Every structure is written in structure tokens, then in C-alpha cells.
Amino acid sequence: MGIPTSSPASSADGSLPLLSVQNLSVEFRTGGEPVQAVRDVSFDLYAGEILGLVGESGSGKSVSMNSLLRLNPSPPANITGGSVQFMGTDLLSLPERQLRRVRGRNIAMIFQDPTTSFNPVQTIGSQIFEAMRVHDRGISRRTARLRAIELLDLVGVPSPKVRYAQYPHEFSGGMRQRAMIAMALANRPKLLIADEPTTALDVTVQAQILETLQEIQRETNLSIILITHDMGIIAEIADRVLVMYAGKIVETAEVEPIFGSPLHPYTRGLLSSLPRLDASVGDLPSIPGQPPSLNPPPAGCAFHPRCELSQHRERCRAEIPGLVHANGSQHDVACHFFTELRVPAPAASEER
Questions:
Q1: 111-134: per-residue pLDDT in tens?
Q2: Strand ranges, E, within the chain
Q3: DSSP string computed for 88-107
Q4: How confident is the model over 300-330, as pLDDT tens digits?
Q5: Which of 22, 121, 169, 254 has the CA that lies 20 to 30 A from 262?
Q6: How far apart are CA 176 and CA 154, in angstroms?
Q7: Cα–Cα distance between 297 and 105 in angstroms, integer?
Q8: pTM of structure
């Protein structure tokens, strides 16, 4: 069973998604109760779409995306349920040998720290060449070199012919990240997963990296999953947003509804903590408390101890909310009382 050569069309014409994740669950076993890091995650991604995945550290963002290609070390990681359909093939059931053909070719990843992603004793060019040769043994060294230089130029690395022969330590942090993007694009993937691609970069370089990703996406119709904790980055680049908390998706919608009328208290808390140019300088509001332990996860809604709407309601403590359509089929939220966010809630709201 292989990966089809043609990708589905975009969602505008009602065709099937490029990637469909259904009920994905992942746990870690390190002794004692397992840590349920990802719980029943489902979403679709269409060709040419940029999907933002946001949430606090530990919310399950990276674990869920690494699980698509079974990159989490096992043990201790264990995928306990779900399916990952990519271009009509379930990646979770593929033999390891066939899955290696998908990694780096059909689906590529950019990791958080480019410093640890490159071999320090090999040139940047040789590592991009190797990324191509893994999936195309017949490629000549000359063709690979020209392709690598072209990619370095595409992502904005200055003097790409010179940089091709340099080592990772001769690149700045921003240039290493650009080179990592070039290596990820070496085999013309259909899907790029970018895990915090602008971490530890200054704001000017961040903007340049994001602009580079957007330009490449427009030119190649590449689908991108962007993992970040920065809602400002999501507003800048994403078409649609998944908000994760305690291993679950709690809200999903296109960017404008998420920023204009968030329906989950957690999403509203994330947005409230962003500095605003139209507001006076002062202490930024924060979400009270800490994310819960997932060993095991709390009963009911995992956010209820920190939630402005919970007010010790029994339903929040006992019943896990599922994703429901809120504003038509394009805005889903997992909150029992999300309608109270549309208008100011009474000061002493009673249990429903």
C-alpha cells in the first residue's frame, strides 16, 4: 500500500481533505498511571491550507503532530487509538519501511531548534543533498547541488552558492532556520509541519521566516501545520486554528471568528493576555492557576478549575464536553456554557 501520486483538491470544491486525523489518542507509560498526553483529537487539513495549532506548553501540540509520523519514541509513547489518513492511506497502519518513504518526502517537518537538527561536522549543502538522496537514489550530485542552491535562494539565504559549502556554525540562528526550511522542502512535500519555527529568534527574523513560509505556500500550494503558543503568529499566517488544552481540542474555527468572537474561556484567556496597541500600558491579564496533570486527567472539563464560567458547576466537574457546532459548521467549541460568552453572564449565574 503506497501513497497516491495525486493530492485531493482544496475544500472549496467539496473534495476530500489531504489529511484527516480521527480520534487520535496517545499516552506515555513511565511507571504508575499512564500520562494521557493526547485525547481523542480529530481534524481535517486541505490542500493549500495553513492550520495553526496553539496552546500552552504541555497541551499536546507537538506530541500529536509527531504521532502523525510515529516519531515519538516507543516506549514510552504509545498510540492507543485513532487513524491518520494522508492522501487516502492510514499512516498509523503502515509498516515502518513504507512510512520512511513518506517522512521527508510527502510530509516534512521543521523542528524547534535548528542547531540540534543539523550535523555540525557536515556542510549545509551536503545535508540538503542527503535529504534528497534518501528518497531519490538516482539523483546526480550536480543536480542535487543545483537544487540545494536553488532552495537556499528560495528561502532567502544570501549568497547561496557560498553558503552551500559552509557548516552550521557559520550560519546565524535565522539563517539556520531558513536552511532547515530549505531541507524540509527538498523533496517537494505536500505537507509541512512546522514546530515553533520562530522560537528564540528576534521579532524581525521571525517576521522574515513567516513571510518566507507564506510565499512558499502561495507558490507551491503547500499545506502547513504551524505549531505555536503565540497567538500573534497565528493571526499573521494561519487560515484556520485549532486550540488545544490538556491534550484535547477545545475550539476550532477560521482565524477571524477565533480572534473576533472566541467561544471557549481558554481561548479568550489566551487572547486577553496579548498586548494591544489600542490599550493603555499596564499588567496583562493572565489565566489563573496551572494546566492540570494528565496522570490521570481530571474528571469533567479539564479547564474547569481555571474557568470563569465554571463557578463550581457540577456539570463542568463531572462531564467532559464534546466539540459542538457553535456558529454554523465552521466554528466548533468544547464548552458546556459557551453561549454565556456571547453576552455578559449574570453576576450570580445559576447551575443549568
A1: 877 778 899 999 999 999 999 999
A2: 19-28, 35-45, 50-54, 77-86, 89-90, 107-110, 191-195, 223-228, 240-245, 248-254, 324-325, 332-333
A3: TEEGGGS-HHHHHHHBTTTE
A4: 999 999 998 888 899 999 999 999 998 666 8
A5: 22
A6: 14
A7: 36
A8: 0.88
